[in-house]
Structures are given as C-alpha cells and as structure tokens.
C-alpha cells in the first residue's frame, strides 16, 4: 500500500513527571496565580506559570491536554530544564502514523516534513519512508546535508546544527517566518497514584495521562512542504490512501492577521485535487485536541463530506456536544451507549462514511450502512431489509481492521516499537483485554440490541452500523503517547488491504 501522510511532524521530548517534582515546581510561583489558573485553565501557554498550572490541572484530574506555547522564553525554559533528560522521539500525528505504517509493511509512505533538521530526519523509520525533493523521492539515509534557502521554498534536506534558518513560506501559504529551532512538543507523562501537593493540599493522580506543551510555529499554520505538495499532486493516481492530521494546532487568529479559514480551505482544495486524480484514493482525517470548539466544528464540517473516514478520542467527541447533544460526562466516562449515540449522530449530520472513536478502554466505529438518509439520532433498530448473508462479511471486515489496530496500539504501548506484523502478533497475546472495555461491550449489546462478533460486537442504528472492540492494555506501558495514531494507522492500513482483497 502507498500512503501519503500529512501534515504535522515534529519532535517529542517525553519526560516522566513525578508528584514530588511537580510540588517543587509549583512552589516557585505565587499560589494565587497558580490556583486561579487551575480553577480556570487558560488553554494556552504565555508564561511559565501557565505551563505549571496546566500540568497541575491535568495531574489533579487525570486528564490529557495539549496547550500551545507562544512565548519564546517559555520554550527556552522547557528546553533548558527538560530536553536533555527526556526521551526524544518522533512526534506529531503524521510522523507517528508514518513510522507505524512503515513498521507494519506499507510499501511506500510519503510524509510532509515542515522542518527537516538532522534531529527530525533521524527519527523516521528507514523502511519504505521517502521524502520528496524537487519532485523525486529520497529515503532518510539518502538525505544530503545542505544549507541553502530558496526564498519561496524549504529545501527538504537543509540542516545546520539542528537549526533551520529563517524561511519564507510559499506564497500559497499564509505568510510567516520559520522559527529558529526545531518544532518540539514537550510531553509530560504522569502515572496513576502519584501524590503531590498544591500549596499544602495533597492530591493523588487518578489516572495516567499526559500534558503537552507545544512549541511549533510552522505546524501552527499547517505548513505544507512545497516538495511534498508537488509530489502528492503528481503521484496522487498511484496512491492507495492518505492520512491527514494536525488541524487541531491551528489558531483562530494569528499575530499577522491571518485566518485559519484560509488555511483550512487550502488544505481542503488539496484533498479535492488528489481525489480528482484518483477516485479510488481513501482519505482519513484524524482530529486532535482543539483549543477552540468553533475551529473544531469548522474543520469537521468542511471535511466530513470529502474524506472517507474521520477519527477522534472521547475528549474530542465530547467537544462536539452542540452537534450531537450527548452528555459530556457520559462520553468522558467512556460509556459505550453514549459514545455509540454521539458517533452515529455526528456521522449522520454530514453523511460521513465512517467515524472511529478510540478510547483507553474500547474502540468504536460508526460505518454508513445505506443511502436512505435515515437519521442516526432515532431509536436504535436493525433495518428490516438487512439479512445476515449480506452484512456478515462487511461486519467481519470492519471488526478485523479494528482488531488489527487495537493489537498495534497495545503492542506499541507495551514495547515502544512495531517491528513488523509477526512482532505484533507475537506480543498481542501477552496483553490484557481492558476489563472496563469488556463490560462496555455488554452494555453496548443491551443498549443497541446488537450481536457479539469475535471479541467485539456490532449493531445497527439508523443508517449506520456500529462496531466495537475492547482495547488491549499493558500492565507496565512503555508509553501512553501516540496510541490513538498507532491504532488509526494500523486500522487504516488493514482496511485498505481488505478492500483490495475484496
């Protein structure tokens, strides 16, 4: 399978934050300032206290979040205090999905790389990953070290001591200048059970998760490398699929007066151009944690009728409350009935082909079943004309693709790597099925009048078929970051293969 991967690729600096260290960090700030920001989170990082409060908020509630860093001095603080002590690895939805596809045997993966520094390139897989350069593909081992800047484009292989000189973005992009450092996302993992103090009051982390402080100016604008852009359009007819992501990094307003609407429209026109050249091309849009709900709804509404599938987690599904109307509390508790209703309602709004919701405990897909235009927000019932011989193979295909994605995510969490399919199949049996996920399968069957299928279940709701599987968990995960992207890439690849086989 040949797959394009855009758009956000960056460097993740992963640091394990302990309770005692957080307590010490908080003591360096005025208590009133921190407590106010914990009570009313700013959602972005303009100061060191914003960072400390965001981290404390997430550890206190066991929730995950990603806040954008806009102040260079905060970048310097984070890099100086944590980078050298961190695990440095591939970051960004597109970067993680690129390496996942490579590890699982995709024949060709083409990523968009905004800042092709030596450090960034070193994090890519060496197997069937190619970087377009002047409309020709090169693997990471072939990348030449250059230090030339054309005023209208970024040379794919430009490297100068891991720094990138100031660059003018292509005229079709919103005008901006590249930062003088690598795009680094500082990921702070924390574990369930960690105890910490917020100015004398003790707390315990209720659930493992992560807080991400993102320093990434080009990906804030969904920068598309001109060489990737040219290659994708020229070779769209040869591609089997495309995974696109990174829209959650967009800002509602930019300092130079630019608008995210222009960026979204440009990205949309690119996807339409690809599909015009290849009607068989399957495109999946992976959402992320949007700081602004209006922006999230805009991206969803613009792409829902264009892409073939769309993915998100339960937090992101909850952010669309105004569209589906399902209580946020039930979604965040990963209630399968609530997730199934919200997913089918959200998908039906724009007749989305497929919506995948991946949570810690289970994964659920709403797949468009018929063309009757029936609302998925009505009472759950199986269409009378559907007969088992007709739908059983479709159910089998969807469940098989989801199951493969679940195995990939579980294996990656347990080992931190994906060394081929044999490796995945060898490691997966050692993992434990989520107990809450298994219980939710039972509730799913009861709520929707569904049927068990293998380790999962399926049901019909309006014009959509709902498929569900519990996740596979590790007792001692090596990582909790990138699991949704790993599941998405694995599921997408296997679904493409099953389409070809069919």
Task: Throw out a few tags for this protein.
single chain; 502 residues; alpha/beta; Adenosine kinase, small domain; UDP-N-acetylmuramoyl-L-alanine:D-glutamate ligase; 2 domains; 6-stranded mixed β-sheet; 18 helices; 22 strands; globular
Structural overview:
With 502 residues, the protein is an alpha/beta fold. 39% of the residues lie in helices and 20% in strands. The chain is built from 18 helices and 22 strands. The strands form five sheets. Strands 6-1-13-14-15-16-17-21-20-19 form a ten-stranded mixed β-sheet, with helices on both faces. A six-stranded mixed β-sheet has the order 3-4-12-9-2-5. The chain has a two-stranded antiparallel sheet with strand order 7-8. Helix 2 (31-39) crosses helix 3 and helix 5 packs across helix 18 (483-501). The longest helix has 28 residues, at 388-415. The chain is globular.
Approximately what portion of the residues adopt beta-strand conformation? 15-25%
Spans of 5+ residues with little confidence (pLDDT < 50)? 141-179, 371-376, 383-387
The first-to-last residue Cα distance is 15 Å
Helix amount, in percent? 25-40%
Please specify the SSE layout and strand pairing:
Elements: E1 2-6, E2 10-16, H1 19-26, H2 31-39, E3 44-45, H3 48-61, E4 65-69, H4 72-82, E5 87-91, H5 93-103, E6 108-111, H6 118-122, E7 131-133, E8 136-138, E9 184-190, E10 195-198, E11 201-204, E12 209-215, H7 217-220, H8 226-234, E13 241-245, H9 260-277, E14 282-286, H10 293-303, E15 309-312, H11 314-318, H12 321-324, H13 328-332, H14 336-349, E16 354-358, E17 362-368, H15 388-415, H16 421-427, E18 432-433, H17 435-448, E19 451-453, E20 456-461, E21 464-470, E22 472-473, H18 483-501
Parallel strand pairs: 1-6, 1-13, 2-9, 3-4, 4-12, 13-14, 14-15, 15-16
Antiparallel strand pairs: 2-5, 7-8, 9-12, 10-11, 16-17, 17-21, 18-22, 19-20, 20-21
Helix pairs in contact: 2-3, 5-18, 9-10, 15-18
């Amino acid at each position: 399978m040949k797959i394009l991967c855009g758009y956000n690729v960056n460097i993740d600096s992963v640091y394990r934050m302990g309770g005692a260290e957080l307590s010490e960090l908080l003591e360096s700030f005025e208590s009133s300032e921190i407590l106010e920001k914990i009570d009313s989170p700013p959602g972005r990082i303009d100061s060191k206290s914003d960072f400390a409060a965001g981290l404390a908020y997430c550890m206190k509630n066991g929730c995950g979040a990603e806040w954008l860093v806009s102040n260079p001095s905060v970048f310097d603080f984070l890099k100086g205090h944590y980078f050298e002590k961190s695990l440095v690895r591939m970051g960004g939805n597109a970067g993680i999905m690129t390496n996942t596809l490579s590890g699982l045997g995709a024949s060709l993966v083409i990523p968009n790389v905004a800042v092709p520094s030596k450090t960034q390139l070193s994090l890519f897989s060496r197997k069937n990953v190619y970087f377009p350069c002047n409309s020709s593909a090169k693997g990471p081992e072939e990348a030449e070290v250059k230090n030339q800047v054309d005023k209208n484009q970024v040379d794919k292989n430009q490297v100068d001591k891991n720094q990138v000189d100031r660059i003018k973005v292509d005229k079709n992009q919103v005008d901006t200048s590249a930062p003088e450092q690598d795009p680094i996302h500082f990921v702070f993992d924390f574990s369930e059970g960690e105890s910490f103090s917020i100015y004398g009051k003790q707390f315990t982390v209720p659930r493992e998760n992560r807080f991400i402080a993102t320093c990434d100016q080009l990906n804030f604008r969904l920068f598309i490398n001109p060489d990737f852009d040219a290659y994708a359009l020229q070779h769209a007819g040869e591609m089997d699929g495309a995974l696109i992501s990174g829209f959650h990094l967009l800002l509602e307003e930019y300092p130079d007066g630019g608008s995210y609407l222009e960026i979204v429209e440009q990205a949309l026109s690119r996807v339409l151009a690809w599909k015009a050249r290849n009607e068989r091309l399957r495109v999946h849009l992976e959402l992320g944690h949007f700081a602004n709900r209006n922006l999230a709804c805009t991206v969803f509404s613009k792409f829902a009728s264009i892409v073939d599938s769309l993915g998100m987690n339960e937090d992101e599904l909850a952010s669309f409350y105004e569209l589906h109307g399902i209580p946020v509390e039930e979604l965040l508790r990963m209630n399968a009935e609530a997730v199934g209703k919200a997913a089918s309602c959200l998908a039906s709004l724009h007749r989305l082909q497929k919506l995948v919701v991946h949570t810690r405990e289970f994964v659920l897909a709403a797949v468009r079943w018929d063309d009757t235009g029936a609302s998925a927000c009505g009472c759950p019932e199986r269409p009378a004309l559907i007969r088992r011989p007709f739908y059983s193979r479709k159910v089998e295909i969807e469940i098989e693709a989801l199951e493969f994605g679940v195995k990939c995510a579980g294996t990656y969490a347990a080992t931190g790597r994906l060394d081929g399919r044999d490796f995945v199949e060898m490691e997966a049996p050692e993992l434990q099925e989520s107990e809450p996920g298994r219980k939710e399968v039972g509730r799913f069957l009861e709520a929707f009048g569904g049927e068990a299928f293998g380790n999962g279940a399926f049901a019909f709701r309006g014009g959509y078929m709902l498929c569900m599987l519990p996740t596979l968990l590790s007792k001692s995960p090596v990582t909790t970051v990138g699991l949704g992207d790993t599941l998405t890439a694995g599921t997408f690849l296997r679904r493409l293969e099953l389409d070809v086989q069919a």
